Amino acid sequence: MTEIENSDDQVKYRILLFFLLPVICSPLMAQTIDDCDSLIKSGVVFMYSKDHVKSLELLTRAKTMADVKHWYRQSFLAMNNIGANYYSMLDYGEALNHYLDAYTIAIRELDEDHEMIVLNNIAILYSKEKQFDKAEEYFKKAYNIAKKKQAKVQLGMYAVNLGIVANEREQAAVAKEYLDEAMVLLQDQPAILINAEIGLAANYLLRRDYSQAKEIALQVLPKLGKEETSENSISVLFILSKIYQAENDLESAINFAQQALTNSLLPEDKISLYERLAALYIEKNDLKAALQAKDSVISAQEEFNQIKNGRLFETNRVKFEIQNYQRELQDNQLKLVSERRTFYIILAVAFLIIVLIAWSLRNSFIKNKQRKIIHKRSNEILGLELEKKNTDNILLEKQLKEKETLALLEQERLKNEIENRNRKLATKALLMSNRNELIEEIINSISNQPGISGNLNLKTHVQQLRNHLKNDTEWESFLTHFEEVNHGFLKALKENHPDLSSNDIRFLSYVYINLSTKEISLLLNITPEACRKRKERISYKMKLPDETDLYAYLSGI
């Protein structure tokens, strides 16, 4: 019955665990690092498609998840791409803040590869703001890290950026060194090499080496297909326009400026190109065209301001929505904390229940085991007690038998010893009897001799012999030895038959040692017939039945 109950408890315990395990394991399956990477990738896709609200929402979710889980690489990527979103929205201040946060994560928690990425982004941002000294500072940091790590492609790319910044700062010699280095490093990277070539053309233009600048620019221009970025094509066309202006070929200069304007997509580029066309038209003395170009500058400026205002509004809207999202995220976080607290309470209660059930099962198991052990030991003790009792009985019986045997042996030994001593007494009594008989024969023989009466000396000797016959010293000696051998016989005989005389006891003592009637008659110096009669008289005196054998009776006393 106990085993069945234990089995039922174990089944209940397993069922309880089966239902509790999904509850316990569910939080562990909530969020993974792959989920975080997926959010970042989706956020980047939405950023390139100009859906900055959705992009920032996904990237903010990824950053929050990464911060909670301490996934520093994912936190860095989310922060860096949030900055890129604000950069695309022309909110350079917000972009810089996020880039700097990403830079902090990189230098504290990640390696120098991540540090280079964000340093380059910060430098580009400063370039857009025309803060070329700060741009050079951050480009230089990225350049030094790449050089230390011997990262060839990154080193070439940062050398290009440093060369372009040096051109902007009119440091032609410095720019030339960086750009020449980039040309060597980027031979296997044609897409990046074009940037180095454009920078080199700008450098030659800065140094007034127009022929070399034009040669490089004209070589690069065909490489820029329709799919190339408008920024590169505008840069090359802008350089060619300046070269031809310097060579006083205003028509070609205007032509390349107009081509650049055609390829221009950004309002700020259009402003620069319209201003360039206005200057060229003024130099050409085409005031009408110059005025139109100036009007276009104003229109482009208004368009840029509208776009900028629209971007600013969009940025503020995005910030507002992000703040709302962050507030919702915070609320969800608080809710999650509350749910987690509830979960932990449930988990603790469940654990406590499991512990109590386990403890109860364990106690039940231990009690049942103890009962079995106690029952088993009780049976063993009972069996041992029975076995001991049987052994004790057998041992007691054996001891009793041994005692009986020893008693019988001792009795037999004593009997044999008594018989042996009685034989000795009988022998001694017979010797006494023979001696008395011999003395009596001698006395009779001497007495029958003639002339005995006249011989006084001989009479004296005969009298001495007769004294020996009447002397009871032998009897006293016999009695002493008899009592030693048959201890208690005479006492019991006297107690049972107090009316017996000393002569009767003497006669019975001879009978007890199994002497014959003849031997007794010789010892008592009487005839055998008198001995038989005396025996009958003593039996009668002892009130023994007629059929009782006197010797058998005396042996039983």
Number of strands: 0
- Quick one: biggest sheet? none
Oligomer: single chain
How far apart are the first and last residues' alpha carbons, in Å? 73 Å
Give the structural class.
Answer: mainly alpha
General shape:
rod-shaped
Radius of gyration: 73 Å
SSE pattern: HHHHHHHHHHHHHHHHHHHHHH
Q: What is the averaged pLDDT score?
A: 80
Question: Which regions contain 5 or more consecutive residues with pLDDT less than 50?
Answer: 1-30
State the helix count. Answer: 22
Report the β-strand fraction as a percent range: under 5%
State the helicity in percent bands: over 70%
Molecular structure report:
This protein is rod-shaped. Among the domains are: 336-401; 421-440 and 465-556, no CATH class. Helix content is 85%, strand content 0%. The chain has helices at 2-25, 33-48, 52-69, 72-88, 92-109, 112-128, 132-149, 152-168, 172-185, 190-206, 210-220, 230-246, 250-263, 267-284, 287-447, 456-470, 473-485, 489-496, 502-512, 517-524, 528-541, 550-556. The chain has 22 helices and no strands. The protein has 557 residues and is an all-alpha fold. Mean pLDDT is 80; it is low at 1-30. The two termini are 73 Å apart.
